């Protein structure tokens, strides 16, 4: 999805971070129109924003070279406004409805959501006048991205630092998504489990966790309250998601059942070990001359147990990793585990090997099966939610 984003830049030292924001949003296919205040242009040359976004950078309210009423054009075109950095002066003017330059005028004229990322000295930020102005804006529906604490360019350490560009970009992306999962509690599991044999060895599998994390991120962007229970992975917690890390299948089971009852949707994307060592050796196992036999015992099938206990309104979604007879095996899992949906993927397909950033799945339910295209896991996660929310509406 490509959106028209108006990036408002006001005169703070953190304006340099907005260059990265403009560049990243452009790379994500969005049209970034920059509006700079007069003092922002003291810090950054408008040409730099133009070079990164390939779109006009405006700061003058009036023009004699175009017949378009500039502030109305930008206000109507915008899907979203991000003001970063926002100075105390800008915040005060916005809160009071003063329109004395292009940026303050455009934000009065728009109906698009407006996000404001304040950045200033810690004492300025904590000043009751600034706090009051921010509260006014928040009450009016503006979204304030709270500054981070840390070293400030003025020499102080405290709250007032503009968040990293990556976080600002994530906040924008989150805001752009439709909120069709609002008020839903979603429990998602992801990653492999790890079953220890002794203090140095364990049994695990190739799951990277990427699909489950992408689902968690997509659900959070769409307004859900998301709990992610993850086995060991290298991945960072998705934005706005409550993450608990576990190791073993038994720990995953315990964590899942603590949350399962109140969840509206449960998605078991984790590759849970089916077997664990019958006995854990507290001491490192020493090698002998012959072969080693390891006795393994079954773990609980969490999805199947959820299927037995689930209430009528809860949606239960499982995955099926298959190397052969994809549809038959996935259909059997759907029935056996009493899931509402099984998302099946063919692990013999070389394009979607374990750890890949892409995936291709078929969604099965009692109604039949639908094959989704090969997509980046992030996009696929949204397609999966599109499909399921559509199907549930019918
Ligand atoms: N699953 C689970 N608990 C287990 C094993 C699997 O909850 N102990 C869940 C997975 O999270 C997934 C679904 O069951 O949603 C199917 O997992 P998969 O590994 O494809 O199938 P298995 O049931 O383990 O069957 P098999 O290994 O025979 O293919």
UniProtKB/TrEMBL annotation:
GO function term, MF aspect, one: phosphopantothenoylcysteine decarboxylase activity
Keywords: Decarboxylase, Flavoprotein, FMN, Ligase, Lyase, Magnesium, Metal-binding, Multifunctional enzyme
Annotated active site: 154 (proton donor)
Catalytic activity entry: N-[(R)-4-phosphopantothenoyl]-L-cysteine + H(+) = (R)-4'-phosphopantetheine + CO2; (R)-4'-phosphopantothenate + L-cysteine + CTP = N-[(R)-4-phosphopantothenoyl]-L-cysteine + CMP + diphosphate + H(+)
Xref: InterPro entries: CoaB-like_sf, CoaBC, DNA/pantothenate-metab_flavo_C, Flavin_trans-like, Flavoprotein
Cofactor remark: Binds 1 FMN per subunit.
Domain of life, per lineage: Bacteria
Pathway it works in: Cofactor biosynthesis; coenzyme A biosynthesis; CoA from (R)-pantothenate: step 2/5; Cofactor biosynthesis; coenzyme A biosynthesis; CoA from (R)-pantothenate: step 3/5
Gene3D superfamilies from the UniProt entry: CoaB-like, Flavin prenyltransferase-like
TM region(s), chain numbering: none
Pfam family, one: Flavoprotein
GO biological process, one term: pantothenate catabolic process
Cofactor(s) required, per the database record: Mg(2+); FMN
Gene Ontology cellular component annotations, sorted alphabetically: phosphopantothenoylcysteine decarboxylase complex
Residue span of region Phosphopantothenoylcysteine decarboxylase: 1-185
The DNA/pantothenate metabolism flavoprotein C-terminal domain, residue ranges: 181-389
Domain Flavoprotein span(s) in chain numbering: 4-175
Coiled-coil zones: none
Region spans: Phosphopantothenate--cysteine ligase: 186-394
Purpose of the protein: Catalyzes two sequential steps in the biosynthesis of coenzyme A. In the first step cysteine is conjugated to 4'-phosphopantothenate to form 4-phosphopantothenoylcysteine. In the second step the latter compound is decarboxylated to form 4'-phosphopantotheine. Catalyzes two steps in the biosynthesis of coenzyme A. In the first step cysteine is conjugated to 4'-phosphopantothenate to form 4-phosphopantothenoylcysteine, in the latter compound is decarboxylated to form 4'-phosphopantotheine.
Family: In the N-terminal section; belongs to the HFCD (homo-oligomeric flavin containing Cys decarboxylase) superfamily.
Protein name: Coenzyme A biosynthesis bifunctional protein CoaBC
Upper taxonomic lineage: Bacteria, Bacillati, Bacillota, Clostridia, Halanaerobiales
């Amino acid at each position: 999805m490509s959106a028209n984003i108006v990036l408002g830049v006001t005169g703070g030292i953190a304006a340099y971070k907005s260059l990265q924001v403009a560049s990243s949003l452009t790379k994500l296919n969005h049209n970034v129109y920059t509006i700079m205040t007069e003092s922002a242009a003291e810090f950054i040359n408008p040409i730099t924003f133009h070079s990164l976004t390939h779109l006009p950078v405006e700061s003058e309210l009036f023009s004699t070279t175009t017949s378009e009423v500039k502030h109305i054009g930008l206000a109507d075109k915008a899907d979203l406004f991000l003001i970063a950095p926002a100075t105390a002066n800008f915040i005060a003017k916005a809160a009071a409805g003063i329109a004395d330059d292009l940026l303050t005028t455009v934000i009065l004229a728009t109906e698009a959501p407006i996000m404001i990322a304040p950045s200033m000295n810690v004492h300025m930020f904590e000043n009751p006048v600034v706090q009051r102005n921010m509260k006014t804006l928040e009450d009016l529906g503006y979204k304030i991205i709270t500054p981070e604490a840390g070293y400030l360019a003025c020499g102080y350490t405290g709250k007032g630092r503009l968040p990293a560009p990556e976080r600002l970009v994530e906040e924008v992306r989150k805001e752009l998504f439709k909120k069709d999962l609002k008020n839903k509690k979603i429990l998602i599991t992801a990653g492999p489990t790890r079953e220890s044999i002794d203090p140095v060895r364990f049994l695990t599998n190739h799951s990277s966790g990427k699909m489950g994390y992408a689902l968690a991120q997509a659900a959070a962007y769409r307004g859900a309250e998301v709990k992610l229970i993850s086995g060991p992975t290298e991945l960072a917690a998705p934005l706005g998601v409550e993450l608990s890390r576990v190791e073993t299948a038994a720990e995953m089971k315990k964590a899942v059942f603590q949350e399962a009852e109140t969840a509206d949707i449960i998605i078991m994307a984790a590759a849970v070990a089916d077997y664990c060592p019958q006995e854990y050796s507290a001491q490192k196992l020493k090698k002998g001359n012959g072969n080693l036999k390891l006795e393994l015992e079954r773990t609980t099938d969490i999805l199947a147990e959820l299927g037995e206990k689930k209430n009528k309104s809860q949606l239960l979604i499982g995955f099926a990793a298959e190397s052969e007879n994809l549809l038959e095996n996935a259909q059997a899992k759907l029935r056996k585990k009493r899931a509402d949906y099984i998302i099946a993927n063919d692990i013999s397909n070389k394009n979607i090997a374990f750890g890949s950033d892409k995936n291709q799945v078929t969604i099965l339910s009692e109604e039949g099966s639908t094959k989704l295209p090969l997509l980046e896991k992030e996009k696929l996660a949204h397609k999966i939610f599109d499909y399921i929310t559509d199907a549930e509406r019918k």
